[in-house]
Amino acid sequence: MQDRLFSAMLSDVLDGLGYTRQALPARIRPLDDSVRMAGRARTALYLEVFEAKEGENPYDLEIDLVDSLAPGEIPVFACGHSGRIAPWGELLSTAAQVRGSAGALMDGMVRDISAIREMRYPVFHGGIGPLDSKGRGKIVALDVPLECGGVRVCPGDFVFGDADGVVVVPRAAEAAVAERAEAKLRGEKETLAELRAGVPLRTVFEKYGIL
């Protein structure tokens, strides 16, 4: 069913189940509107720093995460609100894509965007900039619950992104979301068919309750 999903529909379904804060803010955008992202979260929590310590490799945990990615997994980076961190670029995208990663999500910045777009690897980001994370931020924990763009993400949560934005489906809600999403997809297909046939919007809405 994943190939028929879209973020607005998932957001509506989650709203109906009482999960009303699962869509990331509008500033989190895809590098390429034509690609979609669907997979399981692998989380990384960043700490803002203001110096690079001599002899320390600030990328250790970042490397561990990327090297351990399994097919269908999505690294989710919680970078905070400083706007000083661009932890993702062409090299990490290449290493992740080779491992079958379904995409990457961060509330920090991304760089090397022309190269990533050519790869058609899905990256959803909070901005574009050249700033390396070294001396500005480092990962302090992997695979922990965190907030990315103000939305709680736990390891293994289902993450979906398209041109409209990113939605996180908590594991506890997955079964209910899948059931309701299937019903909503059927209803939207029937709604579109009747609208295209010229049936008034109000009539169609009163019949299906979908808008």
From TrEMBL:
Entries under InterPro entries matching the protein: RraA/RraA-like, RraA/RraA-like_sf
Protein name in UniProt: Putative 4-hydroxy-4-methyl-2-oxoglutarate aldolase
Pfam families reported for this sequence: RraA-like (PF03737)
Required cofactor names: a divalent metal cation
UniProt lineage: Bacteria, Pseudomonadati, Pseudomonadota, Alphaproteobacteria, Acetobacterales
